[in-house]
Write a structure and sequence with these properties.
Rossmann fold; globular; seven-stranded mixed sheet; about 15% strand; about 220 residues
C-alpha cells in the first residue's frame, strides 16, 4: 500500500529546522513580565496555541520591531542535515512543506537561502502598526479541527488524502501534536516524543536531518 502512495513531508520550523525555538528565544531575550506562565500554559495545553502566541507578542511594543526582527534572524541556527534533506526530497520527487507555528518576519528571511517555493511555506503573520506586536492567522483551522491552532497543520495535511499520500511529519513540540495523529510516519524530538509515547503513536527519534534521510532511504529501499 505504502509503495503505491506518493510521499509528502510536513516539517515544523521552530526547534526542528532551527535548533532553537525562535518564539521562546525572542520572548526570553526581551523578557517582558508574565511571559513564562503563558509559555507553560501553551505547552501544558491549558490555553490554545493561537491564544498563547498572541498573548506573548502583545507583551512586546511594536516600536521595537527592528530589534525583534534582527534578534530573531541573527539568533537562529539551522539543524544539521537540512540542506541535504531538501536535496534528497528533490532527488526523490518528495514534496516538502514547511508547516510552521512561527512568524513570517523570521520564517521567510531564515528560509530565503534554501530552495523552497514560497507557496510551500506555511506560517503565521505579523502586524506592527499598533502599540504592541499583533500576530495574524492566515492559515486557521478547518471544520475538522477545533483546537484553535493558529497555523493549523492538520488543515494543511488534510489537503493530501491518505489514500493517495504517505504523510510524513517532522517536529518537536506542541504545534505538532495533532498532526502526529494523522501522519503515517513521525520523526520526533522533545515534547513531541513524549506525546507520541503518551498516545501510543509510533515515532522515530532524530537529532539531525541526516538520521531522517538515512531512515527514509532505508525504508524506500526495503519497499522496492
Amino acid at each position: 500500500m505504502k509503495a503505491n502512495r506518493e510521499r509528502v513531508i510536513f516539517c515544523d520550523f521552530d526547534g526542528t529546522i532551527t535548533v532553537n525555538d525562535n518564539i521562546v528565544a525572542i520572548i526570553k531575550h526581551f523578557n517582558p513580565p508574565g511571559w513564562q506562565k503563558i509559555v507553560d500554559d501553551i505547552v501544558a495545553q491549558r490555553i490554545s496555541i493561537r491564544d498563547g502566541v498572541g498573548q506573548l507578542f502583545r507583551l512586546l511594543p511594536a516600536a521595537r520591531q527592528d530589534e525583534v526582527i534582527e534578534y530573531a534572524i541573527s539568533n537562529a541556527k539551522i539543524r544539521d542535515g537540512f540542506e541535504e534533506l531538501l536535496a534528497y526530497c528533490k532527488e526523490q520527487s518528495v514534496p516538502f512543506y514547511v508547516t510552521s507555528g512561527g512568524i513570517d518576519f523570521f520564517v521567510y528571511p531564515i528560509l530565503a537561502s534554501f530552495d523552497i517555493p514560497v507557496n510551500h511555506i506555511y506560517c503565521n503573520g505579523s502586524d506592527f502598526t499598533g502599540e504592541s506586536i499583533e500576530i495574524t492567522w492566515p492559515n486557521p483551522c478547518d471544520d475538522h479541527c477545533s483546537n484553535d491552532c493558529g497555523m493549523c497543520k492538520t488543515t494543511i495535511m488534510r489537503r493530501f488524502p491518505p489514500e493517495k499520500y504517505e504523510r510524513i511529519l517532522i517536529g518537536d513540540s506542541v504545534t505538532d501534536f495533532e498532526g502526529a495523529k494523522l501522519a503515517d510516519l513521525v520523526f520526533s524530538r522533545s515534547h513531541l516524543s513524549e506525546k507520541c509515547r503518551e498516545l501510543g503513536l509510533p515515532f522515530v527519534p532524530y537529532e539531525t536531518f541526516h538520521e531522517v534521510i538515512a531512515y527514509l532511504s532505508k525504508e524506500r529501499t526495503e519497499q522496492q
